[in-house]
């Protein structure tokens, strides 16, 4: 990986284009940027090799929360045990994201499992084996109102911010062959032919399955970008309490704010959690004041600044936020 890559305006437009359409062809991307397909491909390869951006694939967390099991886990550790714990946990496919945070807990994990029984085993067996563990607190997610795959570099488009409820009625389910496709997608832009070779299926079959997974809302594709390059270099998490009758309206309003990357209802006294990207530490106080004025039903109970995002939706990050490697999110994997 290159030591330094300063993206120019065209690079940022390329990332934004892939945030909107992660599997668009290079001809389509090039046409949007006003460059040829070869140039668009070359620019993306430079960003990829520098750890500045990458397209990842994972189960759609909004639908997953309805049919399976999402959770936030707070982990308390002895100070000398943190590095080893991070090394172990970063390789667990069910742990999608890991942050080292500033107060109240040492690690903050986002977890996807097929069911509550698997979550219980992860907490009661895998985490309990960590040397230096002091304790854990698990908060099951009941509804995901907004998540990071809808965030854009400009982060201003009202069309992106509005909360859209999940469709009611019959929903697609994760079949075995869909799981096989997900397991073969270390890169969200992997060509169907490559996935076909890894799964011993035909390219046309894989393309059809991918279309079913994406069109049915099972699969999320995210163009992840190194946070320092976005202009929003500070990450924070807010915990809040909202009366049950006001929860939906309040959470939906929060998803319209450009700072909000993730907003989810959870079990426990603090029934709403949001993760934020901010332009400065001072924005924390500004945003708190803004929320108090706009959303009187919302009571903030705690907040923490991310000291180091170790893992974000499967991407392993260095201390500058650049992508070093990928551990694909796989809720069904053994651990």
Automatic annotation (TrEMBL):
InterPro entries, sorted: AsnC-type_HTH_dom (IPR000485), Dimeric_a/b-barrel (IPR011008), Tscrpt_reg_AsnC-like (IPR019888), Tscrpt_reg_AsnC/Lrp_C (IPR019887), WH-like_DNA-bd_sf (IPR036388), WH_DNA-bd_sf (IPR036390)
Domain Transcription regulator AsnC/Lrp ligand binding span(s) in chain numbering: 73-140, 241-299
Gene3D superfamilies attached to this UniProt entry: 3.30.70.920, Winged helix-like DNA-binding domain superfamily/Winged helix DNA-binding domain
Domain HTH asnC-type: 8-47
GO BP, sorted A to Z: response to amino acid
SMART domains (UniProt xref): HTH_ASNC (SM00344)
Top-level taxon of the source organism: Bacteria
Transmembrane segments: none
Assigned keywords, A-Z: DNA-binding, Transcription, Transcription regulation
GO cellular component, one term: cytosol
MF term (GO), any: sequence-specific DNA binding
PANTHER family in the record: LEUCINE-RESPONSIVE REGULATORY PROTEIN, TRANSCRIPTIONAL REGULATOR AZLB
Protein name as catalogued: AsnC family transcriptional regulator
Source species of the chain: Amycolatopsis vastitatis
């Amino acid at each position: 990986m290159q030591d330094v890559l300063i993206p120019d305006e065209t690079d940022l437009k390329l990332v934004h284009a892939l945030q909107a359409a992660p599997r668009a062809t290079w001809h389509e991307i090039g046409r949007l940027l006003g460059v040829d397909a070869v140039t668009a491909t070359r620019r993306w390869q430079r960003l990829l090799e520098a750890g500045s951006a990458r397209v990842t694939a994972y189960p759609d967390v909004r639908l997953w929360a309805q049919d399976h099991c999402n959770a936030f886990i707070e982990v308390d550790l002895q100070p000398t045990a943190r590095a080893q714990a991070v090394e172990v946990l970063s390789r667990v496919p069910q742990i999608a994201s890991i942050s080292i945070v500033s107060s109240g807990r040492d690690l903050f994990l986002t977890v996807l499992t097929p069911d509550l029984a698997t979550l219980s085993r992860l907490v009661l067996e895998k985490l309990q084996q960590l040397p230096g563990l002091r304790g854990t607190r698990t908060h099951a997610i009941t509804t995901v109102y907004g998540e990071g795959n809808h965030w854009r570099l400009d982060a201003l488009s009202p069309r992106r911010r509005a909360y859209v409820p999940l469709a009611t009625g019959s929903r697609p389910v994760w079949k075995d062959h869909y799981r096989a496709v997900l397991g073969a997608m270390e890169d969200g832009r992997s060509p169907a032919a490559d996935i076909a070779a890894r799964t011993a299926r035909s390219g046309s079959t894989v393309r059809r399955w991918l279309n079913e997974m994406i069109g049915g809302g099972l699969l999320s594709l995210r163009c992840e970008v190194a946070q320092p390059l976005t202009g929003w270099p500070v990450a924070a998490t807010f915990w809040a309490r909202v009366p049950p009758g006001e929860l939906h309206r309040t959470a939906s309003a929060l998803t319209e704010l450009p700072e909000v990357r993730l907003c989810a209802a959870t079990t426990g006294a603090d029934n709403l959690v949001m993760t934020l990207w901010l332009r400065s530490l001072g924005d924390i106080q500004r945003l708190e004041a803004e929320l108090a004025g706009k959303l009187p039903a919302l009571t903030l109970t705690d907040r923490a600044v991310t000291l180091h995002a170790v893992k974000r939706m499967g991407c392993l990050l260095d201390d500058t936020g650049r992508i070093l490697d990928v551990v694909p999110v796989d809720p069904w994997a053994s651990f």
